[in-house]
Amino acid sequence: MGSINEPSDSPLLYQSAYMTQTPTVVSASGHYLSLANGQKVLDATSGAAVSAIGYGNTRVKDAIIAQLNKLTYAHPGYFQNTPALELADLLVKSTGGKLSRACLVGSGSEAVEAAMKLARQFHVELSPNSPRVNFIARRGSWHGCTLGSLALGDYKPRKQIFEPMLASNVSHVSPCHPYRELLEGEDSGSYVDRLAQELEDEFQRLGPDTVCAFIVEPMVGTALGCVAPLPGYLQAMKEVCQRHKALLIFDEVMCGLGRTGTLHSWEQEDVVPDIQTIGKGLAAGYGTISALLIHENVISGLKAGAGYFQHAQTYQCHPLNAVAALEVQRIIQEQNLVDNARKMGVYLGQLLKQRFENHPNVGDIRGRGLFWCIEFVADKSTKVPMDSKLNIARRFRLRGLEKGYDICLFSATGCVDGVRGDHFILSPPLNIDISGVEEIVYRAGRVVDSVFSELQQ
């Protein structure tokens, strides 16, 4: 593979402790990244499903500049600010009143941590000696890289080294993953019933009155690759939680805010959570902000006790982040970009299946809205994954960034068992058009063909 850029000896540490060949972005506009070496790369992934309206949007930039000239920071414990209040109002209204409060924080990991704390405090306010300290999550999930969120997740490459210091009050049940876990002869309804029973069994193993909450990505992102729930699954999980008075938390940091073809992923199943986290597409890269959306029942629980949430961070409700998110969400609403995501998502799925379905190493093509994944296997009939030593996912990413291919693919490993399995995700901006979708599939196809041609040599 050709070099993407000259090695850098920058003092910046992101991940690698060695010199890196990661290319440098000097500017971006629309759906393209301009690199220091002169390349123009089509961003088919919106970063990590972040850049929902593309790059360089004038309205958002103007809104941020206007806010810079008014107020850049005010301690959220002492003062409110208008952008934060307006954003919270917009987010609550976006749920149709089904969720009643918004708590603005920083990263997605922070949102998940705050959701865990809020769930615990809810139970304590209702019963000061509440034994509800256990959280149930799912295998093949990713909820963030801070210690609490890392414990909830199951993305082994990022988790294993820290296992000895993670909390022991988190357990995991199976995901809803038909491609990998639907049994031979089992129909969808029976599969959902089996998963509901597994969750029930885990409640019983832990002690039903010790479970604080069950947390789910309504559509799994990085770890499994765009796995959507079967009809009835989310409702079945909610019924188990309600039976035992545990909270249901939906982590929509990656899959929310229009990415799957509805503003909130749970709207497709009409299953409302007690707490929802949102993040990446909230400010779409124009700010660093995430949020919790909270059901009135949880707020009522707080009111029954202390009356406030025992959580505070310096940069909560930051006016620059809030105004960026506010303008992004207004654009998404005014330009009907959620509807566009749904329509373009149908087209993207059709083209991906036409282009890749007959490839001997493509196991599954799955997705909703503008959130699609291709999983690669060594054998289509047995679904045996590719040899991990081949580094297929990494090859896709690096080849895409070479001159002449010029596409950013979100590649990942571990979709089979946390270690084995190769896939890449396509999650273009919500304002992509027909020609943009076609260009993504064309370039992705060239990358896949090139990598497998190379392996056969």
Please tell me about this protein's structure.
- This protein is 37% helix and 16% strand.
- It has 457 residues and is α/β, with parallel strands linked by helices.
- It has a 7-stranded mixed sheet, sandwiched between helices. A 4-stranded mixed sheet has the order 1-2-3-13.
- It is globular.
- It starts with 24 loop residues before the first strand and ends with a helix.
Please give the largest β-sheet. Answer: 7 strands, mixed
- Tally of helical segments: 15
Count of distinct strands: 15
Q: Mean pLDDT, nearest integer? A: 95
Low-confidence stretches: 1-7
Computed CA radius of gyration, to the nearest angstrom:
22 Å
Brief overview:
With 457 residues, the protein is α/β, with parallel strands linked by helices.
Q: Keyphrases for this structure?
A:
457 residues; alpha/beta; 7-stranded mixed beta sheet; 15 helices; disordered N terminus
What is the strand and helix layout of this fold?
Layout: E1 25-29, E2 32-35, E3 40-43, H1 46-49, H2 58-68, H3 82-94, E4 101-105, H4 108-126, E5 134-138, H5 147-152, H6 156-159, E6 170-173, H7 178-181, H8 188-206, E7 211-216, H9 233-243, E8 247-252, E9 275-278, H10 280-283, E10 290-294, H11 296-303, H12 319-334, H13 337-356, E11 362-368, E12 371-376, H14 392-400, E13 407-408, E14 410-413, E15 422-426, H15 434-455
Parallel strand pairs: 3-13, 5-6, 5-7, 7-8, 8-9
Antiparallel strand pairs: 1-2, 2-3, 4-10, 9-10, 11-12, 12-15, 14-15
